[in-house]
């Protein structure tokens, strides 16, 4: 595939939440093999931007394109290329850590075996917790169950990760940084938010900086990117 080809494009995005205009006229595009860090202080709309990007929220204005097509039209053809791990983990309390992972992979039509699942859980520091009901795990551990899926998600070109490093210990942060770098090296696109500066060894990284919006009615023109 052409390295220069644009895969992900945000065109003229406007996002309003409550009585706050978070951003308008936001434009961004990137191609194969890019790490995109969405940065900015709390409340500037990082999570909102990721939710727009994966189609869970609609922008007030503008379009999100994947391979030059509107994600609203692509639907399943976009979702099959996508892994989104947000704050709400998408893990089921009544399943074990291992079962959650197996089920999630099954649903995305890339099933894995038990051995692979346990390897993935090990990478996020959940060795020994494979058969524990997820509902009895800590919030941080539940997030790790969700993140474990990335270790079996090479097939999905676009990874969108909201604060993926927050719940992880040092070793797991190191593992995930390497995994993200490898995915980018393989031509994937990873869009993530982080509070802390995590050194991810990739050449092609860009930062999309959000600067804080304005209350609706204010006149100041927003400038981004
Ligand atoms: N469900 C909601 N309804 C109304 N406003 C919201 C909602 N969720 C978030 N917001 C507001 O949108 C802004 C951006 O939130 P968010 O995208 O979570 O920012 P960040 O991830 O950068 O901390 C915040 O000011 C927040 O108060
Ligand atoms: Mg957030």
Describe this structure in words.
The protein is of the alpha/beta class and 225 residues long. It has a domain at 91-156. The protein has helices at 46-53, 71-74, 76-79, 97-107, 114-123, 139-148, 170-185; strands at 6-17, 20-31, 34-39, 61-66, 69-70, 82-85, 158-162, 189-193, 205-209, 214-215. Strands 5-4-1-2-10 form a 5-stranded antiparallel β-sheet. Strands 6-7-8-3-9 form a 5-stranded parallel β-sheet, with helices on both faces. Strand 1 (6-17) and strand 2 form a beta hairpin. Helix 4 (97-107) crosses helix 5. The longest helix is centred in the C-terminal third of the chain and has 16 residues, at 170-185. The radius of gyration is 18 Å and the shape is globular. The model is unreliable at 219-223 (pLDDT under 50). The chain binds adenosine-5'-diphosphate and magnesium ion.
Outline, from the CA principal axes? globular
Instruction: Give the helices and strands as they follow along the chain.
Output: EEEHEEHHEHHHEHEEE
Helix fraction by DSSP (H/I, runs of at least 4): 25-40%
Q: Whole-number average pLDDT?
A: 90
């Amino acid at each position: 595939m052409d390295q220069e080809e644009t895969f992900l494009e945000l065109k003229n995005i406007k996002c309003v939440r409550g009585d706050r205009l978070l951003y308008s006229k936001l434009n961004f595009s990137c191609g194969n093999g890019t790490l995109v860090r969405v940065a900015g202080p709390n409340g500037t709309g990082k999570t909102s931007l990721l939710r727009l990007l994966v189609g869970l929220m609609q922008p007030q204005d503008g379009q999100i394109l994947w391979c030059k097509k509107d994600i609203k039209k692509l639907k399943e053809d976009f979702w099959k290329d996508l892994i989104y791990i947000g704050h709400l983990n998408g893990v089921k309390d009544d399943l074990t850590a291992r079962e959650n992972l197996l089920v999630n992979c099954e649903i995305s039509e890339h099933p894995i075996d038990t051995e692979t699942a346990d390897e993935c859980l090990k990478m996020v520091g959940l060795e020994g917790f494979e058969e524990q009901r997820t509902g009895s795990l800590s919030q941080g551990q539940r997030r790790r169950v969700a993140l474990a899926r990335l270790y079996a998600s090479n097939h999905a070109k676009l990874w969108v990760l909201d604060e993926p490093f927050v719940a992880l210990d040092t070793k797991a942060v190191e593992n995930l940084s390497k995994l993200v770098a490898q995915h980018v090296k393989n031509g994937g696109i990873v869009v993530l938010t982080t509070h802390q500066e995590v050194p991810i060894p990739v050449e092609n990284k860009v930062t999309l900086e959000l600067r804080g919006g304005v209350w609706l009615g204010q006149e100041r023109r927003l400038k981004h990117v």
